[in-house]
Give the backbone structure.
Amino acid sequence: MNTMHFYKYQGTGNDFVMIDNREGKFPQHDEKLIQRLCHRKFGIGADGLILLQDHDEYDFEMIYYNADATTSMCGNGSRCAVHLAHHLGMIGKHSQFYAEDGFHEARIEGEQIHIRMVDVVGIEEVESGYFMNTGTRHYVRFVEDLTDYDVMGVGKKIRYHEAFVPQGTNASFVEMKGDEVHMRIYEKGVENETLSSGTGVTAVALTVAKVKGLASPITINTQGGILQVSFRQLKDNFYTDIYMIGPAVMVFEGTVFV
């Protein structure tokens, strides 16, 4: 039986198994292995698995797998990828990397990592909420009494709603307390509520700016911690220079049987 070295990271409560795959040894098409490594009873346990790989044009490539082995862009995961790349000596304080949704810039300022997200064109009003793509698909709904809100039940219904087939969508629920923004999220691929989401926080910030008129930067309170999103709005429904800002923490490292 072979062993593989890994790093365990968390970014505002989103946790990841991280693997340095520059030698290309990880079996990327082994969905059962990815699912097992992310399983909280039979594996390491994580919301997703991230591979760091070499790229011909950029400092590195980040490949992200949800816990069910589907792929997507992951905002919190990208901050962890930048932190690990810096730890491994692959990058300095500034970097450029490639992810499923394309090219990103990043910079490290103390404990905060700034990730430039893709431009967002179009925020649609649908199903009593707002829908957009911030690197992956997100739905946002304003609610009251967020603490007791049925995020799992309502989130699952929205995730599989006919308005979002066949890809489905993540579903974020937001409560405003004055100008304070609080959110909870149901994530597809994890198929559960998670403590945070970087692409979800980005969607929430842009929705709050559009609907409530808050100006950049916007601070978002997630269950896993505080994130900030800055952006420029060039015209109605077009947002650019979007940066998602927050911490990334290496929790431990070790080896696992594969």
